[in-house]
Amino acid sequence: MSGQTTAEDLGPVTTLATPIRLDFEFTPGVAQSRFLRGLEKGRFVGQRCPTCGKVYVPSRGSCPTDGVPTTEDVDLANVGTVTTYCVVNVPFAGQSIEIPYICAQVLLDGADISFMGLIQQIPTDEIRMGLRVEAVWVEPEELTPSLASVRYFRPSGEPDADYETYKDYL
Amino acid sequence: MAERCAVIGVGQTHHKSKRNDVSIAGLVREAAKMALADADLTWTDIDAVVIGKAPDMFEGNMMPELYLAPALGAVGKPMFRVHTAGSVGGSTSLVAAHLISSGIHKRVLTVAYEKQSDSDAMWALSVPQPFAAPLLAGAGGYFAPHIRAYMRRSGAPEYIGRMVAVKDRINALRNPYAHLHLPDIDMKMVEDSMMLWDPLRYLEACPSSDGAAAMVLAAEDSISGSYPPAWIHGMAMRSEPTMFAGRDQVNPQAGRDCSADVYAQAGITNPRAEIDVAEVYVPFSWYEPMWLENLGFCDLGDGWKLTEAGATAFEGDIPWNTSGGVLSSNPIGASGMLRFLEVAMQVRGQAGEHQIDGARRALGQAYGGGSQFFSMWVVSSDKP
Prior knowledge:
Chain A is an alpha+beta fold. Chain A has helices at about 5-10, 30-40, 165; strands at about 45-50, 55, 70-75, 80-90, 100-110, 115-120, 130-135, 150-155.
């Protein structure tokens, strides 16, 4: 039987890769549905808390601070401020964006909370806190109820926002 | 606290990138047996087991406590699972302590673990969400913008992060259980390492580790073991939502409230003067100066000055993470418990080469998620 590999030759099995796939359906609910329908029309829709007056985007349907439903829809600007950011230089599985890329917290004008956005059309060594940016949307026929409708944000050409205007959003 | 509670046994594995020699069950059992031996107890002496780990999705084992009950001698005994993201090792210790302080049990075994080599934990945190752009690149991508905000707010020079990265790795050389042992570590090595999430470099981030930690906690009438007990003087948990308008992401309210509570219980009014040594969850270098401020060791904006002055170094007046900390070993679920366990070792005088002479009172802190979960305890060699 010489030449044949036996189980003893190979030693114990220590690990076994078992890839797992999970498909799921997500029910967005009323508030997030409005946000998604807004994206389908190429605009950002947030909601205002009736108690503290803060505007959330995307709204989860209630104010985390006051615990009350947010029912008033608020149309938000297409422009905002980069409050802070990092430059991602890590490759990872399923990555759809070429590295290095700028991942920023964008505070839309009229909103009281920032969300994460991709910044393009600026070299990575020129990105800065306070940069004014505008959303660039996909072509009208490509709009869907998804954040994929926003291709990225790019510099709007306005002067940088003063630190005092966004320091409380960090 | 109704009943006094103390740590009477500690155990931990050698933390490594791959522990292929053991299964998860073998890994937790290794730490648990060491803790039992330290307390001079056997499995039958234990009333209940409290176990914690980070998200089940990491290793893909749902409700792993069910599978691990036999390995931890918990068959037929109460077993309790805790999950609060990266702070879980801390909150697991606190849940176990509550079972003693409430008078329910006399001796509780508590265990926490992560086997990152069985998982893809970094990217399990980066699953595409229906309402977010697919930008998040692991925990570093989440925390780096908040670090940048701290740098802007405090005016800290950029080399402070590198100082912490070097200090904790030098400390790790004193700890045989630490994952990273980098004898040549210096500022230049950190600066030359790859920029992963600007402003965070590779050597300013924690490693991915396999490892487990375990402790035996006991009531006052059930103390055993050859080392003196580490008495719990205060314990607290706090949380806050990850996202709300006006949230201070650099200096979270939940962390400030948690430390105020634990200090009040322990009678501490000046943390820097009254705490001999601390183990604080610093997975990215800049979280040392940020938590120095959040934990009230200095005024707002001054955390980096303590780091720069060497106050937190092994020879400093407030040594932080003499074990090497999370920057040197990160078995995520166990990382918080290691903070709590290491300070117990300090006040018991069993920390070996990384022992701070005369340590009597110590703070353990853990945080998790998007800086929204906090857990802390203060332990002392003196009975409360």
